[in-house]
């Protein structure tokens, strides 16, 4: 019996040391890959807009109405991005920031109880921080 305990202890010790040393990874990238990554990083730092979806809950020509509705929606859904845009002559109140239409439809189903005319709207200039406002 003591032999099995000793053998088990040695095996565990061996596996522990092998596991520690086996987790080191070294990546060697070529100069072309480094250049491409540099260009990609620079481009993404300059262009911080992402194409995605929002849910439009209101469209009106009255700016005061859209601002009042924005405050109301922000109180009802504090974990969602809420803002309005002006596409003359309309002010459009939009909620959320979704990467896919399916995700936006999920948000529509939540908002439909409060805003029955809500629908997903494609938007091409969503800032990345808007995606982080969701909980």
Q: How would you characterize the overall build of this protein?
A:
With 135 residues, the protein is an alpha+beta fold. It has a domain at 50-132: Sporulation related repeat (Alpha-Beta Plaits). The protein has helices spanning 2-21, 31-46, 63-76, 101-111, 128-132, and strands at residues 50-60, 82-87, 90-98, 119-126.
Beta-strand proportion: 25-35%
Question: So, CATH architecture of the domain at 50-132?
Answer: 2-Layer Sandwich
Give me the CATH superfamily of the domain at 50-132. Answer: Sporulation related repeat
Helix residue percentage: 40-55%
What's the level 1 CATH class of the domain at 50-132?
Alpha Beta
Key descriptive features of the protein:
single chain, 135 residues, alpha+beta, 5 helices, 25% strand
Give a quick summary of the entry.
The protein is of the alpha+beta class and 135 residues long. The chain has a domain of 83 residues: Alpha-Beta Plaits.
Give the SSE map.
Blueprint: H1 2-21, H2 31-46, E1 50-60, H3 63-76, E2 82-87, E3 90-98, H4 101-111, E4 119-126, H5 128-132
């Amino acid at each position: 019996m003591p032999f099995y305990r000793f053998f088990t202890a040695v095996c565990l010790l061996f596996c522990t040391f092998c596991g520690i040393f086996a987790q080191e990874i070294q990546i060697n990238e070529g100069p072309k890959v480094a250049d491409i990554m540099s260009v990609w990083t620079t481009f993404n730092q300059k262009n911080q807009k992402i194409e995605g979806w929002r849910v439009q809950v209101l469209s009106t020509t009255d700016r005061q109405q859209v601002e009042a509705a924005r405050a109301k929606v922000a109180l009802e859904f504090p974990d969602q991005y809420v803002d309005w845009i002006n596409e003359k002559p309309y002010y459009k109140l939009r909620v959320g920031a979704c990467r896919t239409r399916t995700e936006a439809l999920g948000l529509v189903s939540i908002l439909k109880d409060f805003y029955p005319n809500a629908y997903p709207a494609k938007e091409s200039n969503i800032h990345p921080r808007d995606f982080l406002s969701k909980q």
